[in-house]
């Protein structure tokens, strides 16, 4: 008579071995990326493309299109009487990236030109910003503001000042590309040149752009042609497959035990 413990261990090893092979095939095989999806086209207003907006003072956002390029502005917009802060305007949209999963993001790419900023950014605040993660319907959470990309007229950088890159952002439209590696290492490329890096990147799948701060006098005007996102299939973590294997083996053993009891 087969020892119960030996039988169970044998079944687990059988199923686990198969699962491990499946995992190795998934992890080493080429991950075919989904075609880049256009989430913003400068020919149309954000509201016509599934984007939401948030501002203060209840004022409508100053955004327009000439049929080719989108322009967003907060420079020269007056605050209500007695209010010392300035206006912020953010447009946000869920682009379907999965939080903290492997191979979720291939890249986020956008074409942007700074027209003017009234003042340079400060830590966690910028008159022109792109947020690759947006958790709060306001200025953004601490993580959002740390990871956001600020745009001054002569440089770009992370919102928490951990990295910056000297660049004339007003000269012409530039292509910005955010890539995220499997270990959470995020990189920003400007016209295919590496500009910024950071570790432990996080996202909740919602991105945003605009004037991120209500600091008085810290405003911006910029033009945007497009925003695209390319994602790749998510590969299950090894422990997920292992857990499935163990559960499968136990289920198989219980099924056989049930059949044996009926025969007896």
Walk me through the structure:
The protein has 264 residues and is α+β, with helices and mostly antiparallel strands. The chain has two domains: 49 residues; 199 residues, Jelly Rolls. It has three helices and 15 strands. Helix 1 packs antiparallel against helix 3. The two termini are 14 Å apart. About 7% of the residues have low confidence.
Low-confidence stretches: 19-30, 237-242
Taking the sheet with the most strands, its summary is:
8 strands, antiparallel
CATH architecture of the largest domain: Sandwich
Strand content: 25-35%
β-strand number:
15
Helix-residue proportion: 10-25%
Element-by-element helix/strand order: HEEEEEEEHEEEEEEEEH
User: Helix segment count?
Assistant: 3
Mean pLDDT: 81
Q: Pairing-aware structural class of the strands and helices?
A: alpha+beta
Task: Give the CATH topology of the largest domain.
Answer: Jelly Rolls
Q: State Rg.
A: 25 Å
* Assembly state (oligomeric): single chain
Tertiary shape: globular
What brief labels describe this structure?
single chain, 264 residues, alpha+beta, Jelly Rolls, 2 domains, eight-stranded antiparallel sheet, seven-stranded antiparallel sheet, 3 helices, 15 strands, 22% helix, 32% strand
Layout of strands and helices, then pairs:
Layout: H1 4-28, E1 37-41, E2 52-55, E3 62-65, E4 70-73, E5 89-94, E6 105-117, E7 129-131, H2 142-147, E8 149-151, E9 155-158, E10 164-166, E11 174-180, E12 186-190, E13 193-198, E14 206-211, E15 220-231, H3 238-263
Antiparallel strand pairs: 1-15, 2-5, 3-4, 4-15, 5-14, 6-11, 6-15, 7-8, 7-14, 8-9, 9-10, 11-12, 12-13
């Amino acid at each position: 008579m087969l020892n119960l413990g030996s039988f169970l261990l044998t079944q687990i090893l059988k199923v686990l071995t198969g699962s491990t092979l499946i995992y190795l095939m998934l992890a080493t095989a080429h991950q075919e990326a989904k075609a880049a999806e256009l989430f913003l086209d400068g020919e149309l207003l954000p509201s016509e493309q599934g984007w939401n907006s948030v501002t203060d003072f209840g004022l409508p956002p100053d955004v327009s299109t000439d049929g080719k390029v989108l322009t967003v502005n907060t420079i020269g917009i007056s605050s209500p009487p007695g209010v010392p802060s300035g206006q912020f305007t953010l447009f946000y949209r869920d682009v379907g990236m999965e939080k903290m999963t492997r191979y979720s993001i291939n890249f986020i790419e956008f074409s942007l030109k700074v027209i003017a900023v009234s003042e340079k950014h400060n830590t966690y605040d910028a008159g022109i910003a792109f947020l690759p993660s947006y958790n709060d319907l306001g200025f953004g959470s601490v993580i959002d503001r740390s990871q956001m990309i600020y745009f001054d007229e002569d440089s770009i950088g992370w919102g928490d000042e951990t990295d910056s890159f000297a660049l004339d952002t007003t000269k012409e439209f530039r292509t910005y590309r955010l890539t995220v590696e499997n270990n959470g290492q995020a990189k920003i490329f400007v016209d295919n040149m590496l500009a910024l890096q950071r570790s432990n990147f996080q996202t909740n799948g919602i991105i945003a752009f605009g004037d991120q701060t209500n600091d008085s006098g810290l405003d911006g005007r910029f033009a945007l042609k497009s925003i695209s996102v390319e994602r790749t299939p998510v590969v299950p973590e090894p422990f997920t497959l292992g857990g499935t294997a163990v559960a499968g083996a136990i289920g198989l053993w219980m099924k056989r035990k049930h059949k044996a009891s009926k025969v007896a």
